[in-house]
Structure formats: structure tokens, C-alpha cells
Amino acid sequence: MGTMHIYFSGIGGAGIGPLALIAHQAGYTVSGSDKKKSQYTDYLEKHGIELHVGQDYDKIAKIHAKSSIDWLVMSSAVPLENPDHQELIFAKENNIKMSKRDELLNLILAEKNLKLIAVAGTHGKTTATAMLIWTCQKLGIPVSYSVGAKTSFADMGHFAPESQYFLYECDEFDRNFLQFEPYISIITTVDWDHHDIFETRQLYKDAFKQFIGQSEQTVIFDRDATYLDLNDEPNIVRIDQDDPLLNSIKLAGLHNRQNALVVAKGLQQTFDIPLEQILANLSLFPGSERRFEKLAPNIYTDYAHTPEEISATLQLANEISDNIVVVYEPLTNKRQHFMKDMYFDIFTSVKKLYWVPSYLAREDPDQHVLTPDELIAHLSPQTNAESAQLNDELFGVIQEHAKNGDLVLCLAGGGGNSLDEFLRSRCKVQ
Questions:
Q1: What angle do CA 191, 195, 200 make, to 5 degrees?
Q2: Backbone angles phi, psi at 201, to 5 degrees
Q3: Nearest by Cα to 127 from 277, 16, 292, 330
Q4: Are 224 and 191 in contact (CB under 8 A)?
Q5: What region does 9 belong to: left with phi over 0, alpha with psi -120 to 50, or beta?
Q6: Mean per-residue pLDDT for 374-400?
Q7: Is 363 exposed, middle or buried (0-12, 13-18, 19+ CB in 10 A)?
Q8: For residue 7, is pLDDT > 50?
Q9: What is the pLDDT of residue 1?
Q10: d(C-alpha 12, C-alpha 18), whole Å
Q11: Residue 123: which of 251, 359, 290, 303 has the closest Cα?
Q12: pLDDT by residue (tens digit) across 139-162?
């Protein structure tokens, strides 16, 4: 099976890209496509993966003619955005197996006899997964893993032949996490999200309860266990979110310290290593890309895109500066129709807020696209906000604020052509 040819449709996505890298390292033939070029596609190409930009019928046909494709793995966005996607049509016509990423990952876990350590939660999954990888490296534990961001110390995806464990950022979007039966699950936070998939808060909670039920062990904060109405069971380790141990973790941001604590407890459960030793290594965690990442003096980028994440990131920023300026690019118009009233007092403490148009992905074509001014109208009158566009004028304003000593925090959940890429190209950060 080592020569199976797997084609990844939407290979530049944060979930699919790392899996493509893992499959490549595990000995499969890997190729793929994405609709646009991005830092992720460049990253994968540098790691020896054949891919192309543009997802039309002829391009996948050429790949198939050169080396028969056995399995097409698609990102969740592909069939949602376009049920008549040309690559899916080609695969159907040529009897190529099609699935989402979970089926392939489960095959790799079974074939390589790996135990799954899953990180799930509404917020903090990427950071907590990166913390797991970092700490295992420091403790000398070989692991395979998939994480949805680049870091200074690890690839987005990695397969280690000698590993016994697979560390996975287990996303609830499209109910992906329900396809797994983890050895241990580490839950960061639980709030209602992905309203297009989970139409009510209860459906979202039910999915997490099912996921925990499928896990051999779970580590979770008391607040989330209570929120989910979990019973006290021996295989569920509950943590106090105000545990005094948080004070021993030398990381900026309360949410980072809480992520570190839940990770530490998960590692302690798995490897029986002293908690003090785990926490000492976690206090040295260098962070991951797009999680309060410094791009230039006084200019930061962060992936926060829900009110809870934004509040947590602002709390971190307030530990560093009293003068915070925010540039905000909401993630998906669909989300904003649910969240517009949740922003009311989120930004009242910032010196200035620049609100740019939403990053569009997986949208309903019949839904009105809310403009920055329409969304600003839902904010408290105490918020100093104005609409802006991704252009040279905005970057000039950002530079001026940074030069005057303000901490400019740019919040962007999107990928290619997002506010994040706009900033990187201008700040010349590789």
C-alpha cells in the first residue's frame, strides 16, 4: 500500500495540508491542488509535494494520466462551496475513491499502530497542539502529529516511524472529530461555533459529548464539563480553571496559561511524567504562527475570529500595552449574521478599531454580505471604530500607530489574500 497515490483537493487548507505532508513522509505518493496560491501551498511545495493552483478537470486528468490516482481526499470546504466541483466529477467518472481527511488519517493510525492524542475545543486547539508537540520534543518522546499552523520548531505535519502516538488538532467543523476514537482527548474550551453546521447551541454541545464518549480518557476544565453537563466519571479528568498552578506557567496571556495547564495534565495522564517537569518545558513554549505573532515592531497578527477568542487575545495584549489599536477582518459573512450582536462591548477598551471587509469562504450566495459599517453599527457607542479597506492607506495608518508606540493587533482568521497575508507581504516577514 506504500505506493498508493493520494490526491488532496484543497491541499492549502490548515487541515488538509499537514495530512498531505504526513502521507508523503509515510511513503504514499502525494499530489494535490488548491484554488489559490498561499504561504501553505508554497510550504508544501518546498517539502517535495507536487501540487498545482486551479482545480479544473484537465489539470487533475493530467496528473491521473501520469500516475493513476487511487484516492481523492477533499477538504470539507470543497463540496460545500461547489457540489459540481470539476475534480469531484473527474473522480466519479474514473471510479476514484473519495473521502474527507478523517478516513485517510484513521487508515494511517491503524496501519502504523498509533494511539491518538486529540486536541479539541472551540478555541485554542492549534496552540494546545503546538504546545504538545513542543513539550514531547523537549521530553525526548518521539511523536507523529498534525497541527494547523507553522511553528519555529516543527512542521505542520510529521510522521515519525518510531512513534507510538499521533498528536492531532481535532476540529469540530463538519463534525470531523466524531470520526475518531482517541486514546486521550484534551479539551481546551467549549463555546458555540460553526453555526452553519450546528444550528443550535445544544447540537454543538451534543457533538462534544459524543466525542468525549468516544474517547478512552478526557482532560477538560470544570467550566466546560459543567457547560456540557458531564457526569463525574473515572475516565474524565476535570481541572479547575483557576488552579494555582497557572501562576507557575511563565507565558503571556491567561488563555495561553490555561491551554498549557490542560496540555500538561493530558501529558501527565499519558506518560506519567512529573507535572513540574512538564510545566517547566511549557513555560519555554515559543508560540506558533498567527498566535500573537510579531511581524514588525509594535505590529502583531493573530487568528482570533470569535468574540471569545478576541477577548482572550485582547487580555494578552493588555498585559503588554495600555495603548491597543485593532484591525479586524471577520472570518466568513455567514458567521457574522450569527455574531453581529455578540461584538457589542468586545472592543470598547481599545484606542482605535479599524474594521475591514469580511474574509469570504464557504458562503451562501443568497445571503446579504454585511459591510464593515453595517457590523460597526452593532457595537457599543463607546467603541472608537471606523471602516477601512486592505490598501496602502490602511498600511500607512498601521505604520503610523506603531511608530507612535501603539500596539497594533491585526485579527484575521482567513488564509490566502487575507489581512494576515496583506500584512506579511508589506512587513516582509517570510
A1: 75
A2: -60, -40
A3: 292
A4: no
A5: beta
A6: 97
A7: middle
A8: yes
A9: 44
A10: 9
A11: 303
A12: 999 999 998 777 889 988 999 999
Measured CA to CA, the distance from residue 372 to residue 387 in angstroms comes to: 5
Cell of 288: 506558533
Separation CA 38–CA 35 (nearest Å):
10
User: Which amino acid, residue 55?
Assistant: Q
Report the run of H or E that residue 212 belongs to, with start and end.
helix 201-213
At 295, list the grid cell: 511581524
429 has a pLDDT exceeding 50: no
C-alpha cell at position 53: 493552483
Query: In sequence order, what are the residues at sequence separation of 6 or more whose Cβ sits closer than 8 angstroms to the Cβ of residue 389?
Result: 356, 357
Amino acid (one-letter) located at 119: V
CA 371, CA 407: separation in Å to the nearest integer? Answer: 26
Residue-wise pLDDT tens digits, 246-268: 999 999 888 899 999 999 999 99
pTM metric for this prediction: 0.76
Q: Where are the alpha helices (DSSP H) in 214-341?
A: 222-227, 254-271, 275-282, 307-320, 333-339
Phi, psi of 131, deg, nearest 5: -60, -40
* Residue 375 cell numbers, joined: 457590523
The amino acid at residue 97 is K
User: For 397, what's the count of Cα atoms within 13 Å in the CB-facing half-sphere?
Assistant: 18
